[in-house]
Specification:
The chain is mainly α and 247 residues long. The chain folds into two domains: 12-127, no CATH class; 146-233, no CATH class. The chain is 39% helix and 9% strand. The chain has eight helices and five strands. The strands form two sheets. The protein has a three-stranded antiparallel β-sheet with strand order 3-4-5, with helices on one face. The protein has a two-stranded antiparallel sheet with strand order 1-2.
Length: 247
Amino acid sequence: MEKLKYIFAQPDYIDGFDKDNPIVIYPVRLKDHDKFIEVSHLLHISKNHFEENEYPLLVLVFMCMQQLNLTQEEILKKLEDTFSIVTRKEVIFVSDEKHKIEGFIIDGKNIITVQNYEQVREIIMKQNLMFEQKVYKNKLVQEWANKVLASRSKNSSKISMEDIITTVSVYKGKDYLELIDYTIYQIYADFYRIRKMKKYDTDTLFATVAEKVTIEDFAEEINMFKSPYDDLFVDSSKLNKFSGIGK
């Protein structure tokens, strides 16, 4: 069972330069959503994207800047802005060979370096429901995975963050200014619960005129951390249901 800190928008803490003054990572608020989406896409880069990944992930990000069509300065600025949003502090990159300091200084008191970047990245992604796309070593499998994702996207409802906010606002009777300090996690949690409750209402209505209607409890657990990249392919064990396959 997940802790309640996500629904109550509580921060996570990471050991930094000063053990008595940990790095505080806050979940992103809706007021910072647009800027966060603009600058945070570097977080989606993982070691799985590299064949040779013996280097720290932060180093690998800079090594692929040509493929990203970004300069070193642009990457640094995006990371500075990302870390500023989640720490709610001024963050500046510093490289000081004399004092052997290189990293993103947080309000002059702590630092994100190659050593703790992956932990910081993992927490930011979890807090804000960012999911790491699976990377397959086999080129053909990767192509099919991309096709499955494209098909799912094409056939699914087009729901933007604005649509989610307006739904929650109308259903809960909240003014938009009341939602501006909601976190990304909180707005999704409300939205998914509203959808589940509306589905419950629809199912109970159908149950009055149809047989064998499955009615799920509207308060049933919702797995907020289920990745959309899971279950892209049928489990091989299920293939045995088809005649002549798997025998």
